[in-house]
Specification:
The chain starts with a helix and ends with a helix. The protein has one domain. The chain has 6 helices and no strands. Helix 1 packs across helix 3 (46-67) and helix 2 (37-43) packs across helix 3. 83% of the residues lie in helices and 0% in strands.
């Protein structure tokens, strides 16, 4: 269990850093800089700016991937696991986004939070449908086994 959680967090760390820097590069308006001038001003060197941005982006990835363990490593109901995962990811994302100045206004935070909520709601609906189908299939298998057992008892 711990290995699986650690592996997910490591994947989250690496992918979070990569995605954060890719987003910074794509939003650099063609300058090719993968850090904002604000980060350069705040930390004094391009290397420090990139390092801070990478580590904080990685933290978002760790929260997202590590939080996935709530679904299969705990006995929490799906709604509870999804809610806790959302709160963790949302809190980390907003804190990092404010620090890195990806978002500056309450409106931007609200829009991003609404988009994240919609994504988590969609994930919950999809997972609910999948779980419901799996339960139905397991119930059918159990019913078939019960019918076979009853048939075997009546044949005696």
């Amino acid at each position: 269990m711990k290995k699986k959680v650690f592996r997910r967090m490591l994947i989250g760390f690496l992918s979070g850093a990569a995605v954060g820097n890719l987003i910074a590069l794509l939003s650099s308006s063609g300058s090719g800089m993968i850090y904002s001038p604000m980060l350069l001003e705040r930390f004094g060197s391009p290397a420090a700016a990139i390092l801070v941005q990478s580590l904080l982006s990685a933290l978002i990835g760790v929260a997202g991937m590590g939080g996935m363990s709530l679904y299969d490593e705990t006995d929490l109901p799906l709604a509870a696991a999804t809610s806790i995962h959302f709160v963790i990811v949302e809190a980390v994302f907003v804190a990092v986004a404010l620090f890195l100045r990806w978002m500056r206004s309450a409106a931007e935070i609200g829009i991003m939070s609404a988009m994240m909520f919609a994504a988590f709601a969609a994930i919950w609906v999809i997972m609910f449908i999948i779980h419901k189908r799996e339960v139905r299939q397991l119930n059918e298998i159990a019913k078939e086994k019960e019918n076979i057992k009853k048939k075997g008892e009546t044949d005696k």
